[in-house]
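not sure who needs this but someone in the group chat was asking about Amidohydrolase from Roseovarius ramblicola so here u go. i didnt clean anything up, its just raw.
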Amino acid sequence: MTLTNSDVAELTALRRDLHRHPEISGKEAETARRVTAVLGRHAPGTLLTDLGGHGVAATYEGTEPGPTVLFRCELDALPINETGTAPHRSTVPGTGHLCGHDGHMAILAGLARLLSRTRPKRGRVVLLFQPAEETGAGAAAVLADPQFDTVSPDYAFSLHNFPGLPMGHVSLIPGPVTCASRGMEITLTGRSAHASQPETGTSPMTALAGLMPGLTALSHGTLDAPGFTLATVTHARMGPPAFGIAPGEAVLHATLRTLTDDRMADLVNAAETLVSETAAAHGLTAEIAWHDVFAHCENDQEATRIIETALDALGLAHDGRGLPMRPSEDFGRFGHAARAAMLFLGAGEDHPALHNPDYDFPDDLIPTGVRIFHRIARDLLG
């Protein structure tokens, strides 16, 4: 069974409507309402809402026992102002679907259409619309929600569009595919003073100036090296914007990145030690807070073979180009509960990159994504 021309037109309209009304992580209430209304028209056996926040999950069951197969997409947009000129551009200032989650939602909505027409013979298909992917909080919240105990997938699959790859080409490998990462917020506190008498205070200036190159120096090797680490300074602020005050406080943000979770602990320890020793050397106190914590995403061998079999049956070209990649994806957490794998679907070699202000999801990928997911479901569940 495939999508009709009418299906594709309606899914494209849905994608563009979602694009016009983006919501950032944790604020996806209206997006979830729209998704719930769409899924309700396709008669799932069960429909969970408010899952891990604003998450939505629809279940389609077969008549015979079998595995539970989860397909996941994301609800959230980005706090970036869209500069594109398409008629369906964002109507929300400072917010845009500039990562393609609107397209991923349309793909799962298309899969719901096909499943409503022909249910799986056995087992269950679960379509999960996950909140808060961009902050790394959503998958953990979904997995921690008691409602998710009723889902308990055996397999979990996801896709992400991938600018830089030819349109419709798939990148897929077993093993790590995206990095672990976390945001480090450092607050240095000393004592402010009058700018004419800086010696009466304790300024964080020298410590802040040293920490920026110091953290960056923790970076090591390339992505394929055993000890790969990357520390990127992303923000710095010192004192109020005034001329009469020698500052007594500073804030520094950095992102730490490793290929796998087990390597992150060593990088975190090195960064925390550097901050502690630097603060002490300059008579400051230091506080560290962690944000946007992403586990690495690792493709299970069996789940990867299942995707490969589906791609071969559909005649879709695939290889491992561009993988693993430095960006993070919180789908990796589902690999702790199921055999999980993620594929990357080419959005065009010259397409604007993810998170660029002029990015827009290519509508031509909607039927391709639906075909891939539907084939996986059919191969596993009949």
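also The first strand starts at residue 46 and ends at 51. if thats useful
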